[in-house]
Amino acid sequence: TGVWQHDNIALALWLLFTGECERIETRKTMDKRNTDVNQLETIKQQKIIEELRKSYKTEEERSGKKKTYHIVTFGCQMNSRDSEKISGILKQIGYVETDSEDADFVLYNTCTVRENANNKVYGHLGYAKKLKENRPGMLIALCGCMMQEPEAVENIKKKYRFVDIIFGTHNIFKLAELLQTRLLSDRVVIDLWKDTDMIVEDLPSDRKFSFKTGVNIMYGCNNFCSYCIVPYVRGRERSRNPEDIIAEVKALAADGVVEIMLLGQNVNSYGKNLTNPISFAQLLKEIEKIDGIERIRFMTSHPKDLSQELIDVMKDSTKICRHLHLPLQSGSTRLLKIMNRRYTKESYLDLVERIRTAMPDISLTTDIIVGFPGETEEDFLETMDVVRKVGYESAFTFLYSKRTGTPAAAMENQVEETVAKERFDRLLKLVQECSAKAAGREEHTVQKVLVEEVNAQDPTLLTGRLSNNLLVHFEGDKGLIGKIVEVYLEESKGFYYMGRLLEK
Ligand code: 5AD
Ligand code: SF4
Question: Do 92 and 84 form a contact (C-beta atoms < 8 A)?
Fold first, then answer.
């Protein structure tokens, strides 16, 4: 309890002296896996959610209206999953979700992996300011990776004074408490932690799709690739206990989930910091045993840590999907070293060879950065060479973006924008050629498909996903959504298929 008393005193002092409710700190528990502290936190947050639920109910009865919320999510799957957690807490309090930013509570879950991600947030904030002027009592919150950057927060405090709550990536579980503080204090609430080793379990969580969801297996990253801001904004690597993960997946299966995506910045180093270390491959084997779960995906794999054990487990599995996202970043061994990626062009190609030999039908996708400091035409041609050799199903290509605080940002030999852009266009063309070549491999075969939704363009069609992550559109009843069905792939359209549902 000492921890919380200390917190409250700090909070009161901030309120007194700054006029803001603000804390920036590193939260470390004494014991690395101090489950007692984590459990106490769960109980505390559940209590606050309950208090808020009661007062929102009273307010709802008085006004005859439910309060609405809207979350704008930027960035990766990790952020999408975080938004589902935010959503879960808000629904429990009594909010209902609405599909526009004209809501009682708007939250921006930000990303900062590239500069343009930050710019998008400022654009939305300009819009939110106008909405707030016409909607008294509207609350605006900012959270996510960009809030872990002190310069960005300073800028927001100065120029966007209408923001009500700011929190980061480490303390999403505190949302109800921060909201309560804001409602009581009428001042901006800023709660940012530099890092943490806390993992707070058992708080409410929502799902965008009833039949599939992400499951965090670890948080943070220890790799410090020299261009990447993630280790600074998501903290050090920490794995959830396998028992907690398995209990969550079992509960999801009981609730109708058939597909899960295991999430971590580098899933292949899962389990290393646990008291009883287990490998990612071993965790997968345990999850496979869970009845009801029919498909398992995971993201992201670092090529340096992808083990032969994992390849073997995938090969023998009927549930693990035939798709691997294997970020290359660059095909130049020289540049990979400066990027601190800890593999070479040759070892990457050897890994791909081993994966393809074990699973010839696997689909491979990747991330590539163009214009990293010092990238020469020769380096770039090495990247093109790997892309050609691997023949990715698809690739996300990025122009290098300078992130303050990362080693690469301080490198003097930054590549000129026009040069980088010209290379980027060449790479994109090659990637598209590879995708076109790879697509169509399954044409005229029968595949298992998870039916995901009614096709947005043509409502007579359903859209489903193959094990290898490609989409197929076919005629069928929307009652099939969330089910796994067999579809004959009649025609490849490059990035997707047109198919015919097979009757059971
Ligand atoms: N500039 C451009 N792309 C980046 N990525 C990460 N940091 C940067 C950066 N500074 C890309 C990497 C990573 C993906 C999520 O984003 O390719 O795999
Ligand atoms: Fe960033 Fe590298 Fe960690 Fe991925 S592995 S999040 S690219 S530092």
Answer: no
| C-alpha span between 490 and 461 (Å, rounded) | 14
Measured from the CB, is residue 132 less than 6 Å from ligand 1?
Answer: no
pLDDT tens column, 84-131: 999 999 999 999 999 999 999 999 999 999 999 999 999 999 999 999
Nearest CA to ligand 2 atom 5: 223
Which of the listed residues 79, 224, 228 should we mutate to test ligand 2's pocket, taking the one with most ligand atoms within 8 A of CB?
Answer: 228
Continuous segment of H or E residues that includes residue 105: strand 105-110
d(CA 348, ligand 1 centre) in Å: 18
Two structure tokens written together for 47: 């209590």
Ligand approaching nearest to the C-alpha of 408: 1
Taking only the tens place, the pLDDT of each residue in 364-400 is 999 999 999 999 999 999 999 999 999 999 999 999 9
Q: Is the CB of 223 under 6 A from ligand 2?
A: yes
3-state secondary structure 359-428: CCCCEEEEEEEECCCCCCHHHHHHHHHHHHHHCCCEEEEEECCCCCCCHHHHCCCCCCHHHHHHHHHHHH
| Structure token pair of residue 183 | 């409602």
Q: Is 83 in the pocket of ligand 2 (CB under 6 A)?
A: no
- Residue among 172, 257, 260, 262 nearest 217 (CA): 262
Q: Six-digit token pair at 171?
A: 């303390």
Decide: 406 in ligand 2 pocket, CB within 6 A. no
* Dihedral sign for Cα atoms in the order 142, 144, 146, 147: positive
* Reported pTM: 0.91
The reply to whether ligand 2 has any atom less than 6 angstroms from the CB of 336 is: no
Torsion of CA 326, 331, 337, 339, to 10 degrees: -60
